[in-house]
## 1
Amino acid sequence: MKNLILVSLITILTACGGSSNDIIPSPTLAPTAEPTAEPTAEPTAEPTAEPTAEPTAEPTAEPTVEPTVEPTVEPTVEPTAEPTSILSNGNLNEGDGDEFTNWGKWNGGPNLTAVTDSCSGRALQAASSGGNAWELQFVSDEVTMVADTQYTASMWIKADAADGIVRFSLNGASPQYGVDETVATGDWQQITSSFTANDTNTRLQLDLGASSVTYTIDNIALVEGGTALAGVCPENNPELLLNSDLETGDGGEFTNWGKWNGDTVLTVTTTEVHSGSRALQAASPGGNAWEVQFVSDAATTEVGKAYTASMWIKGAVADGVVRFSTNTDGATDAQYGPDTTIGTDWQNITWGFTADSTSTRLVLDLGASNVTYYIDEISLKE
Ligand SMILES: [Ca+2]
Ligand SMILES: [Ca+2]
């Protein structure tokens, strides 16, 4: 090989005209690196673990813990929760017609009827002609009581005449009679009576027959303990409008109400009523609000006092616009409530205003839209 290279070099040099004796350093060949074999790792044998015998635990005797005397916590006085009445439907809101769910009429039934002039929703009207207390009796379903425990019955009541006598009684193993209570006229008042139960099953009775008085009764309660269920009658303000429920009147006329405009479109309905059997039907042709007007008799109002007008109303079709206003015989300007849009379901709309006269008529301005309305229970209260 070297000889061959040398011969080749001499040949080249001769060809170039050089002397064959000129020494030219032979080029150094790059050493070809021999590939180093990767050492094959010997697999290390996994040491076989000697199974360690599970030590059998010596049962350790439970150390007898000396009971630590619980530090005596000062009892935090829990606010006394309002007791719950054990009567069902004590607010008398459930029931059809003149019936009250969970309540019975044991004597004088026809004189025990439902009304809506109440603390809340429906109430009981008891028209007593005077006689024995038990001759007009409104009686709860049977309730479970704890014998020898004190209970307190209560009801909200108002009367149309003074000095009506009513009482509670319990109808258990042997009857228990509460004291006679005298009901004043005027606002709703709460009457209470406490008993120590002598039976586990009994009924609460309202004995209303003693006097010739018509009562309205709502929110009847029976609670454990000597204190009556608290609470107020939220609608303790008397209705200022006469014939507010529109039940009184001949045909399309409504006692205590006038038709100032739109006489021919203001009639009675006996099917679309919110309560009772009569309501106002107002078939407005559409125009100015005042062109269909239903107006109450004047109510006594106090200048500067706040009053709330309300009514139940629905439209045969939606989107009719109505409003309340006042009329005060020209002594002062009329006041106008906001335009209110009426749907096709019964709704209670209200308007609050401050009286500017001692005598105020409530006016329903129904003429704005071409809509037939049904209206019931028109109210004005302080
Ligand atoms: Ca009620
Ligand atoms: Ca009615």
## 2
Amino acid sequence: MGSDFFDELGETLTRTAKEIGERADSFFEVQKLRNKISTEQRMVNKRKMDIGTLIFQRYLQGEALDDEVAALCEEISCHKKTVFEYQEEIAKMRGERICPCCGASVDKEAAYCPKCGTPCAPQENKGKAEDEAAEVADYEWEEETEEETEEITEEESEEKDGENQKEQKEEE
Ligand SMILES: [Zn+2]
């Protein structure tokens, strides 16, 4: 074996190391570009959301929109209404109401929303005695839920407790 062999071997090793290095470089380059793509994609999605918000606002302001867009806005309205109903249900269980304007929780006794000042008429579909009983029940229930964990099963069983209290109230 002459020195040629070692020269060649050395050359091959150098070339291999260089190739690995180049591959690593291009790997990081690709990764960098992928991150950039993600950033751009996020911006596209964000702006799409902005467009949706803008159009939905225009729909609420009564602006004439084409049928396809109007139908989508109507669907959003339905879902928002359902959300409001669920929020109201929760608030009712806690002796509160939901502000129809801003969606904040308002104490049952308060005449105005503390957040936006919208007048919130007290609910008058219940008798006074019944109302007081409900307050006590709500208060007790609220205390129980103070240490509430985020576990769904517990929440569900507590929701059932709330239902039971409601049923009892209706029986009285
Ligand atoms: Zn409000």
